[in-house]
Design goal:
24% strand, alpha+beta, 513 residues, seven-stranded mixed β-sheet, binds glycyl-adenosine-5'-phosphate
Length: 513
């Protein structure tokens, strides 16, 4: 199936089965804002629990907090967000559409990559098994010409971005003859900077209302609390503070469903270390976070690191963990060595001493920070894309199955009476009432058993049990496995022990230690 189609199907599936709905749907939606439905919220909560437990439960030197979304506005001045949290924007005068200049250029670079890939695919088909990709890429004149153009553009773009050279960004768009996808023209305005923070007013205007921002990242709530936590929790460096919470960005190019949203959720952890030790901790967290992703079992080839060439002014190392989405490898998580930039800035702006006293060294210093920052919604999207599968089954029909890791699945066990009579629903309810304290169970009696299995496949339920007339006599049920579709008779009394470990988050956490 073409990857474009996969993505469209995932988006449609999310709506059809109660995972994600456009926000304010009956009012035709609100751009880049989404709501999670009855299945989506369970999956999202499981992702958050997996992250929280892997950070806070597995590390005795990491604790959590939940800071407010509104913070003192000076925090965003100190962090640099008021002055520098900008996107370069350009408008097309004919379509009146607004674009991110950097995204237009990145898409142009991707077009060169696509052309190269097309040449490679054609040659691979022509030469069959004897095809040597590396040799072909190094010698084929068409590939070399496209690669030279691509690399030159990439270099020019990097320099312009590094220097925040807005005129040069516009010139690149003009020179590359990039057209507006709507009007098809090259009638571009100048490039302007646009701040991504949402703001509102706190207090009544009569009192002189204060302009406050909706936080664009959760990290600052951790920085401004680090000493509160350190002192009250008697933490010693190295230690970490974790937080899950909403963040808001007025994204201009908000596309690709829940990949880029205006209201989203982050899971961030700031790890405070002694200056000079940051690179070893950076490597540690880089490795641990990749392991966390891979432990879900979607296949190691779905992930890669992308080390940043251009570092933010406060960072001395940064890498992304990218996931192979249907629209290419994309950032899901960032791991950043943020130096002591944020804490030093807050110290300067608040005018108080917020240094850490190290009892082992008997000295005070501003800790360095390693940050791991992952978007819950992007993680959710990656999980849905990896899990969405279409299979042809023995009768020639297609079954849609979400091959979710059992630990993340919204429903762990469906309990299905074969028919709606003869005491089978009552028996099924009895099983539900027994097992619902251990994991999320779902009762369903409508439609044929085959249709009910398909529905459970579509929401990723790893196990179903069917209660039939024989059950009333021997207290055994048919247990069906979602992925293999194998069925076996098992005693009701054994169900909890058979399934509990397999569907628990602990089963995945154990792979991390
Ligand atoms: N505190 C660091 C920070 O916020 P970031 O790279 O801007 O770094 C971290 O964001 C993660 O948050 C990203 O890797 C992504 O998963 C998620 N994220 C950022 N912007 C997002 C958006 N508009 N919609 C959904 N997720 C987003």
């Amino acid at each position: 199936m073409a990857q474009d189609d996969v993505f469209k199907k995932v988006v449609a599936h999310c709506k059809e089965y109660g995972f994600v709905f456009p926000s304010s749907d009956i009012y035709d939606g609100l751009g880049a804002v989404y709501d999670y439905g009855q299945m989506g919220v369970e999956l999202k909560n499981n992702i958050k629990t997996y992250w929280w437990q892997s950070m806070v439960l597995l590390h005795d030197n990491i604790v959590g907090i939940d800071s407010a979304i509104f913070m003192h506005p000076t925090i965003w001045k100190a962090s640099g967000h008021v002055d520098a949290f900008n996107d370069p924007l350009i408008d097309n005068r004919d379509s009146k559409k607004r674009y991110r200049a950097d995204v237009l250029i990145e898409e142009q670079i991707a077009k060169y990559d696509e052309k190269i890939e097309k040449e490679v695919a054609k040659a691979a088909k022509r030469f069959g098994e004897s095809f040597d990709r590396e040799m072909f890429c190094q010698t084929n004149p068409k590939v070399l010409a496209e690669k030279a153009k691509r690399d030159a553009l990439h270099e020019r773009f990097s320099v312009a971005m590094n220097n925040v050279d807005l005129e040069e960004l516009r010139q690149i768009i003009v020179d590359e003859e990039i057209v507006c996808p709507i009007s098809g023209t090259r009638n571009w305005t100048e490039v302007r900077q646009f701040n991504l923070m949402f703001s509102t007013e706190m207090g009544s205007t009569a009192d002189g209302a204060m302009k406050v921002y909706l936080r664009p990242e959760t990290a600052q709530g951790i920085f401004v609390n680090y000493l509160n936590v350190q002192k009250t929790g008697r933490m010693r460096i190295p230690f970490g503070i974790a937080q899950i919470g909403k963040a808001f960005r007025n994204e201009i190019v908000a596309r690709q469903f829940i990949f880029r949203m205006r209201e989203f959720e982050q899971m961030e952890m700031q790890f405070f270390v002694q200056p000079g030790k940051e690179m070893e901790w950076f490597e540690h967290w880089k490795a641990f976070r990749l392991k966390w992703h891979k432990a879900l079992g979607f296949g190691d080839d779905k992930y890669r690191y992308h080390d940043h060439e251009k570092l933010a002014h406060y960072a001395n190392a940064a890498t992304d963990i990218e996931f192979k989405m249907p629209f290419g490898f994309k950032e899901v998580e960032g791991i950043h060595s943020r130096t002591n930039f944020d804490l030093s800035q807050h110290e300067k702006y608040c005018g108080k001493n917020i240094k850490y006293f190290d009892p082992e060294l008997n000295e005070s210093y501003t800790p360095y920070v390693i940050e791991t920052s992952i978007g819950v919604d992007r993680m959710f999207l990656s999980v849905m894309c990896a899990a969405y599968t279409e299979e042809t089954v023995s009768n020639g029909e297609t079954r849609v199955v979400l091959k979710l890791p059992a630990a993340l699945a919204p429903v762990k066990l469906a309990v299905l009476p074969l028919v709606k009579k003869d005491g089978l629903p009552e028996k099924a309810r009895e099983i539900m009432n027994e097992l619902k304290f251990s994991f999320n169970c779902y009762y369903e009696e409508k439609d044929s058993i085959g249709k009910r299995y398909r529905r459970m496949d579509a929401i990723g339920t790893p196990y179903c049990v069917t209660v039939d007339h024989q059950t009333l006599e021997d207290n055994m049920v048919t247990l069906r496995d979602r992925d293999t579709m194998e069925q076996k008779r098992v005693a009701i009394a054994d169900l909890r022990e058979m399934l509990q470990d397999k569907v628990s988050i602990t089963s995945v956490l154990k792979k991390l230690s």
